[in-house]
Design brief:
Elements: E1 25-27, E2 30-31, H1 32-39, E3 44-46, E4 49-52, E5 55-58, H2 61-72, E6 77-79, H3 80-87, H4 100-114, E7 121-124, E8 128-131
Antiparallel strand pairs: 1-2, 3-4, 4-5, 6-8, 7-8
């Protein structure tokens, strides 16, 4: 009989390789770390996953970095320089004329819209972005 290892549907941890800090199984395919994070009304970034209002959205590494900064400052302007600093720690960020950040935010917006959170990121022209979290926890 072959051994089939459990795998969490959100973070991908397994019985042999648990989440950092440890976890246990609360469902056949859900670990305790992800279950706890999913129960919060505020969005949570876990590795390269955004848990928001019951949805789990897979992000690239850089998308996760940007969303971590935006989610940490809900309903507040996060300026372009702060996002660039998070994206390029310890190195020189691109010039403000670069469209790298705009393209990245556009990709995240598409992923959020596909999960039913169409207006979660607001652009503040020439200044930065704001993560908008409406009352009740659903963006």
């Amino acid at each position: 009989m072959a051994f089939t290892e459990r795998r969490c549907r959100i973070c991908g941890c397994t019985e042999l390789q648990a989440c950092r800090g440890g976890c246990s199984w609360i469902d056949k395919d859900l670990c305790s770390s992800c279950g706890e994070a999913a129960s919060h009304t505020a969005p949570v970034i876990m590795g390269q996953r955004l848990l928001i209002a019951g949805s789990s959205i897979k992000l690239s590494r850089t998308e996760a970095v940007v969303m971590q900064v935006l989610v940490a400052a809900p309903d507040r302007l996060v300026d372009v320089d702060a996002l660039h600093a998070a994206m390029y720690p310890g190195s020189k960020p691109p010039s403000r004329e670069s469209n790298v950040l705009q393209v990245l935010v556009s990709r995240v917006r598409r992923k959020l819209a596909a999960a039913g959170h169409k207006h979660a990121i607001e652009t503040i022209r020439l200044r930065g972005y704001r993560f908008v979290m409406p009352q009740g926890g659903a963006a």
